[in-house]
Amino acid sequence: MAEDVPKNETYLEEKMKAIEEAEEKEVASPKMAIVGLILAFAILFLCHFGPTLPGLRPTSQSVLGVFLWFITIMVTDALPKAIVGFASPMLVVLFAGIKPGAAFKAFSTDIFFLAGGAFVIAGIMMGTPLGKRIALKIVTLMKSSRVTKIQTGLGLADVAVGSVLPTVSETALFLPVTKAIGRLMDGKEHLPEVKRINTALLLQTPGLTPLFTGVCILTSHFPNIILAGQLEAEGIYISWVKWFWLNLPLWGLLPIMFWYVFTYFKLWKLEIPGAKEEIPKLKEQLGKISFGEIWALICIGIGLTLWITEEVHHIKSGMVALITATLLFMPWGKIKFAEVNKHIMWDTWVLLGGAISLGTILYDVGTVTWLAGLIVEPIRGLGLPTFLMMGVLAAALHIARAGVVSAVAMGVAFIPLIIGMAKTLSLGVLPFSLVMTNCLSYAFFLPISITAFLIAWGASGMSGWDAVKFGSILSIIANIYVLVVQTAWLALIGYPL
Q1: How far apart are CA 478 and CA 256, in angstroms?
Q2: Could you give the maximum distance between any two Cα atoms of the chain, in Å?
Q3: What pLDDT, on a 0 to 100 scale, did the predictor assign at position 407?
Q4: Exposure of 7 by Cβ count < 10 A (0-12 exposed, 13-18 middle, 19+ buried)?
Q5: Residue 111 CB-half CA count within 13 A
Q6: Burial class (CB in 10 A: 0-12, 13-18, 19+), 8
Q7: Residue 260 has pLDDT above 90, yes or no
Q8: Which residue pairs, CB below 8 angstroms and at least 24 apart, start in 418-424?
Q9: Span 76-130, pLDDT tens digits
Q10: Which pLDDT score is estimated for 281?
Q11: Which regions of 76-170 does DSSP assign to beta strands (E)?
Q12: Is the pTM higher than 0.70?
């Protein structure tokens, strides 16, 4: 935190503590952790020492065992994220005989450095009032008590910080801000419109908007990073700005999602009494902007400019992220690393390295090709047109990912498989994998399928069944949009299926 940042906490910071504590919880209960570990290693040993399945080589089956170990550990939260990140390639070395250089290859890739630098930048936004200040400033500019305008302002704020914050961090940032706005209706909770407003605010702002913006920005969503890492291993490099370009039409989903929320909860004519006057006071509680925050804005601006102009200077996105991270801590910036460090997701960074490494190995040894064949061949036998077949595959993958709340686990489980499907079907690897991964990122059929949506749903008090009804319709809309609009867009810019 910058030296001249006000030290006094407001109730915004108090609200923040609960979500931060939830996100910092790395290990399940001791009993669950032990059960998860026993199950994970039992599966690993069975795959390694058991009879080889038809179509697999012993090495491929051992890697399959490590893959299933990874998924089991992640689903049960049996080990800290960083340990899982290091352990996965280590187990590949020990059980499959893969050389360490190949097993840990992802730790030296551009996408790995991009993620690390992006996490440092995100740490600045979380460790100073900067992120909240931007959010409340934009909402204040709406100068309205209308619920739709307030939520639109919060959505624009989400977009403004989405370029440097992962989705979970955006949720952590916007949850207390949203709750603070909801507190303006204290004492009126018995009114049905107040309940609808609070539920919509919590579901949309910290839950949905970070996910809808995150898919469009390379550094804002873990599956994006994993997919870019896997494509880099395939010889397909995607820069920060190229990712933005490939996903450009998905920004059209943002107003559709806003319209859906406003309509579902009947918000069009509702107001939050006194919001126009009280929201600026929330911003004032943060105090005067510090020099450290100003310096952070300058550095982030430099980083975004370099990302956007990569075709001119040819400095890759990962190096730009590291340059930006280094500039942030120049002594004249008055940003204390010790204060920011606790907000940097070092553990997730290591986990991503291990996840991308494991995904690459899964393909290299043929495990992914075997798995893809098991899924694709029965569906291909139906004789469906490519578009309809992709819809069936997307539906099947949504069912398979139900309950896999970790975005990293989802990425490791499905992205290598999706790339394998593309090759099995002789389709373009980039367009097919991008469209299918994006479909999986809009998984709102169950409130437990995505971390950000899970946190927002839990804070809203909405029943599970109501969340299923609300989320299912939105998921169907988003998936159809991706399958139709993004597929057409990719073909138009030179990436046909």
Answers
A1: 9
A2: 70
A3: 82
A4: exposed
A5: 29
A6: exposed
A7: yes
A8: 419/230, 419/231, 419/234, 419/363, 419/368, 420/363, 420/368, 420/369, 420/371, 420/372, 421/372, 421/375, 421/376, 421/393, 423/369, 423/372, 424/369, 424/372, 424/373, 424/376
A9: 888 998 999 999 999 999 999 999 999 998 998 999 999 999 899 888 888 888 8
A10: 85
A11: none
A12: yes
**pLDDT at residue 247 above 90?**
yes
Which amino acid is located at 12 in the chain? L
Token pair for 411: 């990425």
**Closest C-alpha to 13, from 343, 487, 414:** 343
pLDDT band of 403, cuts 50, 70, 90: low
Residue in this structure with the two tokens 């100073």, named with its chain if needed: 128
Paired tokens of 283:
């911003």
Give the number of C-alpha atoms closer than 13 A to the C-alpha of residue 212, restricted to the C-beta side: 28
pLDDT band at 46 (very low <50, low <70, confident <90, very high): very high
Distance CA 317, CA 110 (A): 7
Q: How far apart are CA 281 and CA 105, in angstroms?
A: 50
What's the half-sphere exposure (Cβ side, CA atoms, 13 Å) at 17? 5
Residue 111 phi/psi, 5-degree rounding, is -65, -30
Q: How far apart are CA 421 and CA 384, in angstroms?
A: 15
5 secondary structure, DSSP code: S
